[in-house]
Write a structure and sequence with these properties.
The structure holds two protein chains of two kinds.
Chain A: E1 3-7, H1 17-21, E2 26-28, E3 35-37, H2 47-56, E4 62-66
Antiparallel strand pairs in A: 1-4, 2-3
Chain B: H1 33-41, E1 44-46, E2 56-58, H2 61-67, E3 73-74, H3 87-92, H4 107-115, H5 121-125, H6 128-144, E4 149-150, H7 151-156, H8 158-168, H9 175-186, H10 192-215, H11 221-230, H12 236-267, H13 269-276, H14 281-295, E5 302-306, E6 310-312, E7 315-317, E8 322-325, H15 327-331, H16 365-382, E9 387-388, E10 397-398, E11 405-406, E12 410-412
Parallel strand pairs in B: 2-8
Antiparallel strand pairs in B: 1-2, 3-5, 4-12, 5-8, 6-7, 9-12, 10-11
Classes of the chains: A alpha+beta, B alpha+beta.
Bound molecules: protoporphyrin IX containing FE and iron/sulfur cluster.
The site of protoporphyrin IX containing FE has 23 residues of chain B, from helix 12 and helix 16.
Protein name (chain B): Cytochrome P450
Family (chain B): Belongs to the cytochrome P450 family.
InterPro entries (chain B): Cyt_P450, Cyt_P450_B, Cyt_P450_CS, Cyt_P450_sf
């Protein structure tokens, strides 16, 4: 069982909060700051950071799903 | 009785409370007691504002998080029912150009992506060294100058103005002019005609500077916007208003977080000591978020209007109903922040809503955080004996502006 990160790009308002919380999982496009998912299946050690990103994303654009 | 632990959390919730709600006497840093009482008893309820209309007031953290990102919740102040902050804002709404501050998705998303580049986390982080230099130089000047002094004028106002000058790409030789004019525009005690003249000069200055950057671009925000103007992505007038907006939105807010943040920390010597004794960037970053949460300086509430009926809890917000989100009440919500009235620099504070929530969450938040991290991490170490040189009762607070603040903060060391 692993966890998968879903990023809803059209919803993203490019706030960069996910990059601040989980820099190994998210990055931002240079020109407009829209989020990029670096790691769709982050390791367990990164899950707390991803959960924080989910919690603080102002656009509610990130989901962590069990699969 | 300035310690928030003994501040009232109850107030009259009948008849319809008038918003904005007053703070309690002797509790300058705590939210309005009625806002706290409403959060506990009537978390989504009607209030009365200046024009007699009765928008909903939303005070719980969870309800704000549910509603602010909802596409039925509109920031477009041309929609009937919009709960304007004051008569002036109501008057200018029809003649204000469409900006990120008054549009909804998809237009808001498009506009915001055109101005967001400079605020990308990695680019902001590159400003750490220049900001450290600005802060160090200002502290040198303050230590060489008169003691006591006004922390606001000597330090808190110049920091954000010099940082925004750096961000926009204002040449060094113009920094004095830029700093003097932008402080005059924001100084509540300046003569209105002086403030108006300074504001006109700033607009003319930015207008001209953007033209210069079109000819000889650098790596700054104005050059980037000049490029977008040339590419037809935004108009010259939009670029000028965006430059002015960044200056206005980022100056007083950050200055207040420096002055009132220092005041709050001076009142909590044990917490100030934590900050003075650490050089762990994570500890300093969390301290900044906790002070942001505790003070929540945007005091007029975030304003929105419903574009459709919205059911939430046992309430139905009807299409055309105004909504006001009281950020301070949400940031003191005990469901999310136990013992919220305690300033605790070690609590997990990151989920606060001092920068708002939803698509309009503060564009400059990453820059503001960085400035405050440098300031809080430097000022109290460089001047360990810093103290308030007045009784807190004698400070004059600004209860009417969008941002809470203090008119002058005498300090000595
Ligand atoms: C500690 C300092 C600051 C605080 C507390 C603060 C607070 C806020 C809040 C609460 C909002 C949301 C308004 C809403 O939802 O209607 C906002 C929006 C905004 N802020 Fe800040 N701000 C700060 C610093 C800055 C800085 C440094 C800049 C720019 C350099 C800035 C630029 C903006 C802009 C342009 C918006 C509008 C965003 C939009 O509507 O999409 N702010 N700010
Ligand atoms: S936190 Fe959310 S809105 Fe901000 S960049 Fe990441 S995905 Fe986009």
């Amino acid at each position: 069982m692993s966890m998968r990160v879903e990023l809803d790009v059209p919803k993203c308002v490019a706030s960069g909060q996910c990059v601040m919380a989980a820099p190994d999982v998210f990055d931002q496009r240079d020109d407009d700051g829209v989020a990029i998912l670096l790691e769709e299946h982050p390791g367990d050690e990164l899950l707390d950071e991803v959960r924080e990103a989910v919690a603080i994303c102002p656009a509610a654009a990130i989901r962590l799903v069990d699969q | 009785m300035s310690d928030a632990l003994s501040c009232p959390v109850t107030g009259a919730t009948e008849p319809l409370p008038e918003y904005p709600l007053p703070r309690a006497a002797g509790c300058p840093l705590a939210p309005a007691p009625t806002a706290q009482a409403l959060r506990a008893g009537k978390p989504i309820t009607k209030v009365k504002i200046w024009n007699g209309s009765t928008p909903w007031l939303i005070t719980r953290h969870a309800d704000q998080r549910a509603l602010l990102p909802d596409s039925r919740v509109s920031d477009d102040d041309l929609n009937p029912g919009f709960p304007y902050v004051n008569a002036h804002r109501a008057e200018i709404a029809p003649v204000t150009p469409r900006l990120i501050t008054n549009t909804d998705a998809p237009e808001h998303t498009r506009l915001r992506r055109t101005v967001n580049g400079p605020f990308v986390v990695k680019r902001i982080e590159k400003m750490r060294a220049p900001i450290q230099k600005i802060v160090d130089d200002l502290i040198d000047e303050m230590l060489a100058g008169p003691n006591p002094t006004d922390l606001l004028k000597a330090f808190a106002l110049p920091v954000p103005s010099l940082v925004i000058a750096e961000l926009l790409g204002v040449p060094y030789d113009d920094h004095d002019f830029f700093q003097r004019s932008s402080s005059l525009v924001l100084d509540g005690s300046a003569a209105p005609e002086d403030a108006r003249r300074a504001s006109g000069e700033l607009v003319a200055y930015l207008d001209n500077l953007i033209r210069q950057k079109t000819a000889t671009p650098g790596k700054d925000v104005l050059s980037e916007m000049a490029g977008r103007v040339q590419a037809g992505e935004m108009t010259h007038a939009e670029a000028v208003s965006m430059g002015v907006a960044m200056l206005i939105a980022g100056h007083e807010t950050t200055a207040t977080m420096i002055s009132l943040g220092t005041l709050a920390l001076l009142q909590h010597p044990d917490q100030l000591a934590l900050l003075r004794e650490t050089d762990d960037p994570k500890v300093i970053a969390n301290a900044v978020d906790e002070v942001l949460r505790y003070l929540t300086i945007v005091q007029t509430g975030v304003r929105r209007v419903a574009k459709d009926d919205i059911e939430i809890g046992d309430v139905v917000i009807r299409k055309g109903d105004g909504m006001i989100f009281d950020l301070h009440a949400a940031n003191w919500d005990p469901e999310v922040f136990p013992e919220a009235e305690r300033l605790d620099l070690t609590r997990p504070a990151r989920i606060h809503q001092a920068f708002g929530y939803g698509p309009h969450q503060c564009l400059g938040q990453n820059l503001a955080r960085l400035e405050l991290q440098v300031v809080y991490g430097t000022l109290y170490r460089r001047i360990p004996t810093l103290r308030l040189d007045a009784a807190i009762e004698d400070l004059e607070f600004d209860h009417t502006g969008t941002t809470y603040g203090v008119h002058g903060m005498p300090v000595a060391w």
